[in-house]
Design brief:
The structure is a single chain. This protein has about 190 residues and is of the alpha/beta class. The protein is about 30% helix and about 25% strand. The mean pLDDT is about 95.
Length: about 190
């Protein structure tokens, strides 16, 4: 069975490879639109479904895996920062506080579609302005939701986590492996 990852995320590619899956990468070419009135969990599932649908339409026999990850802090969705100033604003807000990371995922093959959401709680330690500036200077925050990557230098910002670590990286590995069984796919 052909499996397609509808994402250009190197982290998702790495995690699927670790799961023992053979797949091709075909990022969804869509404008990500969050419908008004959705909870953060509903929004991230909707985004993953939009991505999955876009690729599944042109590959109806393949199993498409799509995902989207957001950071939720104080009721707000923190996406990828568009500037250094926005990255600094996000990291300053998260300093010493708790936030949630939600990853929505969709598996799509023909008429069979499964969408889910995994949520992890992350605690940041107190960060000085100098530490935030040094972290931003690495460039790592600029393509990450919430302006940090837990698998990189951002690991030094995280005091603790409750939930799936891999979810914070961008793909809830355990939950995804269980969902893949519904499509006849076993990992490893």
């Amino acid at each position: 069975m052909e499996i397609i990852l509808a994402s250009q995320s190197p982290r998702r590619k790495e995690l699927l490879t670790r799961m023992g899956l053979a797949f091709t990468v075909l990022p969804a070419e869509i404008e990500e639109v969050i419908e008004p009135g959705l909870t953060p969990q509903e929004a991230v599932m909707s985004l993953s479904r939009q991505k999955g649908s876009a690729v599944a339409l042109s590959h109806p026999d393949a199993l498409v895996i799509a995902a989207d990850t957001i950071v939720v802090f104080d009721g707000r969705i923190l996406g990828k920062p568009h500037s250094v100033a926005q990255a600094k604003e996000m990291l300053t807000a998260l300093s010493g506080k708790t936030h949630h990371v939600c990853t929505g995922f969709t598996l799509w093959q023909g008429q069979q579609v499964e969408t889910g959401c995994e949520e992890s709680e992350v605690w940041f330690r107190e960060l000085s302005e100098e530490e935030i500036d040094r972290y931003i200077a690495t460039g790592e925050p600029m393509d990450k939701a919430g302006a940090y990557g837990i698998q990189g230098y951002g690991a030094m910002l995280v005091r603790g986590i409750h939930g799936d670590y891999f979810n914070v990286m961008g793909l809830p590995v355990c939950r995804l492996a269980m969902a893949l069984r519904d499509f006849g796919v076993t990992c490893l």
